Amino acid sequence: MSSTTPDSSRPSMSDQPAPSLGPVPLFDRHLKVISDSYLNFFLERKRIEEVYVGSLLKLYSKVKSIDGGLDDLTELSTARRAWSEVIDNVEREAQTRQAFLATLTSDVVNALIALKETQDRTRKRIKEDIKESINSYTDYAENVLPKLKRTYLRKCQEVEDYKAAAAAPPSNIQGTPYPEQGAQNVSSSWSNPNLSAKPVVTAPQPLRPLDRKPSGSAPGYRTRSPSTSATFSDFAHHGKKQLNQLITFLDKGGNVRETLGVRSENHSLRAVRTKREADEADKEYRKGVHWLETLRLRRIKILDNAYISLGNFIRDYSSTAKIVLEKYVDNLMATNVTQTQLSEHARSVIKKISPERDLSLAANQIPRSLASLVPKPILYYNYNVGECNDLIFGVSLVDYATSRGLSETEIPRIAQLCVDELNKRGLEAEGIYRVSGRHAVVQDLQHKIERNEAAFKFNPLTDDVYAVASLLKLYLRELPEPLFRYPLQDRSEHTESRVEQNQISQMRSKIRRLPAIHRETLRAVVEHLARVAARSEKNKMDIKNLAIVFNNVIFGEEEIPKGGDLLSVQHVNDTRMEGLILNASQLFEDPPSSSSPPLPAVPVGEMASTYQYGSSHTKVASVPPRPQSLKREEDFHPLLPPRPTSSIHPSLRANPISPIGATMDIPPLPRSQALDDDQCPSPSSDSRTDYQIVSRPSSPLSQSPRTDTDSLCRSESVRTS
What we know:
The protein is mainly α. Among the domains are: about 25-165 and about 310-350, Arfaptin homology (AH) domain/BAR domain (Substrate Binding Domain Of Dnak, Chain:A, Domain 2); about 380-560 and about 575-590, Phosphatidylinositol 3-kinase, Chain A. The chain has helices at about 25-70, 80-165, 180-190, 220-225, 225-240, 245-350, 355-375, 395-405, 415-425, 440-450, 465-475, 490-495, 500-510, 515-535, 535-540, 545-555, 565-570, 575-580, 585, 630-635; strands at about 380, 385-390, 620, 695. It has a two-stranded antiparallel ribbon with strand order 1-2. Helix 1 runs parallel beside helix 6 and helix 9 (about 415-425) packs antiparallel against helix 11 (about 465-475). The longest helix has about 110 residues, at about 245-350. The protein is rod-shaped. The protein starts with about 20 loop residues before the first helix and ends in a 26-residue tail after the last strand. One of its GO terms (molecular function) is GTPase activator activity. This is Rho-GAP domain-containing protein. It holds the Pfam family RhoGAP. InterPro entries: AH/BAR_dom_sf (IPR027267), FCH_dom (IPR001060), Rho-GAP (IPR050729), Rho_GTPase_activation_prot (IPR008936), RhoGAP_dom (IPR000198).
């Protein structure tokens, strides 16, 4: 049997797998993905959501505390109600986010943590099993099995040595005096496995015969065993304690003597025993190889199970990731749907905001609040009459209209009262506006109307028309801003213009640029003066006389230029006031509703169609007969009678009975053409047919009673909003 070297089949540490291979690194990589990617994201998402929910709740509490101090016990406006719903939606959103946070924790984070912990335990168990199997296999392959193999080979070599010794011829016994020496030679040959497979075995030397009776003259025997006498002498000295040593020595001596006799028998026995030991070593070695294979298969089985566990981990990891992400997205969608519903609810409440209702709600509180804030007015105290509630004289028309909230069609009450009173009683009063009223009466009327404008009324028995006319002139003259500011230089330039239509258009454009209160007051005064001029046969006040009186009253006082004189100013040609009175119907007529071209002339041989009087604004109950057509010169320039020889000096009014409406027969205003909706009748017609105009109901806006049913010379007898 040849011997083989065991180093070629012995595993080494260089054959071990690299640390980056195997199931454990794959476990580590997937667990790192779960931990660093999924769990880190969802934990950070959870933290952000917790911070957001906390911020929402903090904001809600803060705003609620602020609104609790701002909103009093009164009824909330629609805007504040909508705001309250928007703020409540913040709390609802926080509750929705809390539900999303709970589902994120239970369905996502906890599931990933459970998967990680379970697979981490599996990884640790697999790692321990693999480590144990590797260590067991390596230790057995590198330590135990080589030892068994060396024992087996040594025993086999000993058997071969005994066989070779038995087959060899006998030689000198001195070669191997003792069996132990041969055994040492055999063992020395096995100590080095690199020796030849069949080492040379030296045959035992033949035993020398021993003399049974040793001779005393032979010193060789005495020197060969000198310890016998010493032993007995020691025995004598030591006594019984050395008895065992003596017996042992005698046995050795017997063995030595018997060695040469029984050497052949011991050699056979040792060969058999060595053979048996070799067989046992072979069995142990075979068992060792089998156990090493068992360890190798066990290691393979552990690795297979580890990879199976890795596959289960990957499958569980993928399925868990799918379930977790589905739940996350579903919860996110549910949260967004809830958020959308909250926004739609808030939008429906916001649509209910009504500015008009909020304004009315606030308007109910404004008067009380304004009354508590506005101080009481400090009234003007007149030395003669006491406190005056209303300041009228010397107050601009714009300030008057603003303080009393007049509409664009209203005029000051004093102007309306004076015009109405003069239309009733003063149209035929001789020298009206030229004859001044008594100063004391005019001042008394001024103080009365300023003491209580709303309750003031003229008394026909005590207040003569001249005082009323003087009161109207005084009011217009004391206006800070003239009723119709028109410088004298401009008036003279436009007077020199020969084209009448251009003068009317230019004057109309100037009137339209006036403030509403100035325009309407000018209209009332000029139309009233046109009525006065129409009665010039009785009141002796033609257009020129009225223009002289009202020139400075309407247009304002003119300043004398530097280096000029009063005579040069008086000789300036100015007929603009006359033009105002003469063309009142054209200057103050409302613009046509449409710019339709004029109708063509009536065909020859056909009668012109007659149209009923009235419009959508007026109804005519009694229509006067159509007057004869008059020439324009006769229509607008009535023939005035010569000046009366009697004087109209104020001293003639010493008669206590003033000409009032009750004692004077005031004929109706003559008309020369059909009455239109917005056109004033001509002031110089001889027709005096009475008729009546029925007006539509006025608009909700307060209107001053500017139209008198007895006076039919107003171009706007009916005005609707």
